[in-house]
Design brief:
This protein is of the alpha+beta class. It has one domain (4-193): NADH Oxidase (3-Layer(aba) Sandwich). The protein is built from 8 helices and 5 strands; from the N terminus they run αβαβααβααβαβα. It has helices at 4-11, 26-38, 56-71, 79-90, 102-111, 119-140, 155-161, 191-194; strands at 18-19, 49-55, 94-101, 144-148, 168-179. Strands 1, 2, 3, 4 and 5 form a 5-stranded antiparallel beta sheet that branches. The longest helix is centred in the middle third of the chain and has 22 residues, at 119-140. The chain is globular. The model has no long low-confidence stretch (mean pLDDT 97).
Length: 199
């Protein structure tokens, strides 16, 4: 099957072995992230996604915060593996923090009470679409990335360190950088398990 967008999605892979030498400028990375999120869909065009991009020392600070938060809860005997994993994130060039604006969600719930239960779900879906858009966009520029979820463990410290509004709820952390080792093979389950087509 030949389709440019499908090929872009296929090219987007989780890259764990990242370096800090980006193939494009930090300014271009930030601009691409902005555009990808701006044009990602959201229910009622609510535009609930909020983004913080960390480069260099700020990026490393995030993962030092995460490491210390994990040190407090991971048994000492098992911490070496955890530390190694966090250090692999520190080796990257930057991190995208994905937030959702809770005030927008609450406002929509009040404005459209019939759909109130759905707005938090739609907010999560909007965040997922923004994450895919950013990830796919970066992969097109040969920037590797992996998606992490250390929220809510680090939420309070992130909010304090970067003066994040209280209504911005952290949803994911995407580490990015140079691709030091490509992704391995990926297995797929049989199509007939996942897909049904009726005519």
């Amino acid at each position: 099957m030949s389709n440019a967008f499908i090929e872009m999605i296929k090219n987007r892979r989780t890259i764990y072995n990242l370096g800090d030498k980006l193939p494009i400028s930090e300014e271009k990375v930030a601009e691409l992230i902005k555009e990808a999120v701006k044009h990602s869909p959201s229910a009622f065009n609510s535009q609930t996604s909020r983004i913080v991009v960390l480069f260099g020392a700020e990026h490393k600070k995030l993962w030092d915060i995460t490491k210390e938060a994990l040190r407090a809860i991971v048994p000492e005997a098992a911490f070496a593996g955890t530390e190694q994993k966090i250090n692999s994130f520190i080796a990257g060039a930057g991190t995208v923090l994905f937030f959702e604006d809770e005030n927008v969600v609450t406002g929509l719930q009040e404005q459209f009470p019939l759909y109130a239960d759905n707005f938090p779900i739609w907010s999560e879906q909007a965040s997922g679409m923004a994450q895919l858009a950013v990830w796919t966009t970066l992969s097109q520029e040969n920037v590797g990335a992996s998606l992490q979820h250390y929220n809510p463990l680090i939420d309070n410290q992130v909010q304090k360190e970067w003066n994040i509004p209280a209504n911005w709820i952290l949803r994911a952390q995407m580490v990015f950088g140079s691709i030091e080792q490509p992704a391995g093979d990926k297995d797929f389950m049989d199509d007939d398990v996942r897909f049904k087509v009726f005519k």
